[in-house]
Amino acid sequence: MDYGLLVIGIVLLLVSYLVAVKKQTWLLAGFNEKMIKNKSLLGTVTGGVFFLPFGLLAVINSFIDYPYEGTVLIIAMLVFLTITYVFINRRLLD
Questions:
Q1: DSSP 8-state symbol, 91
Q2: Which one, of 47, 36, 52, 49, lies nearest residue 91 by Cα?
Q3: How would DSSP label each residue in 48-65?
Q4: Which one has a higher pLDDT value, 51 or 88?
Q5: Phi/psi at 70 (5° precision)
Q6: CB neighbours (10 Å) of residue 67?
Q7: Are the C-beta atoms of 62 and 6 separated by less than 8 Å?
Q8: What string of DSSP letters covers 21-86?
Q9: Alpha carbon of 47 to those of 3, 8, 19, 42, 91: distances in Å?
Q10: How confident is the model over 18-48, as pLDDT tens digits?
Q11: What are the C-alpha distances in Å from 33 to residues 3, 36, 68?
């Protein structure tokens, strides 16, 4: 059991809750607030499409040991990040 990965997963799940449910978009760095028209949808997309699945994956991977675990996490993070990026650029930046 990897306790460090478990803590990271729990923190990601907490951030997911704060961003998606409580709409705390100030936790998101690196976006121009003036360009985003619907901050509520931004919170839902980033919290629900990026932070939630990645947090769950980190928690599950903290209990399971298998080869290339780090590579799987990096690829999953890049896939979630790409999906989130494409959705934000197509739907939220009008």
A1: I
A2: 36
A3: IIIIHHHHHHHHHHHH--
A4: 51
A5: -65, -40
A6: 7
A7: yes
A8: TS--GGG--S--TTT-S-HHHHHHHIIIIIIHHHHHHHHHHHH---TTHHHHHHHHHHHHHHHHHH
A9: 23, 15, 5, 8, 16
A10: 999 998 888 888 777 777 788 888 889 889 9
A11: 35, 5, 38
Instruction: Give residue 18's identity as a one-letter amino acid code.
Output: L
Residue found under tokens 């009008």: 94
Alpha-carbon Rg for the chain in angstroms: 14
Q: Which two tokens stand for residue 17?
A: 């809750």
**Calpha distance 73→46 (Å, rounded):** 18
Reported pTM: 0.84
Tokens of 43: 């919170």
Structure tokens at 88: 């934000």
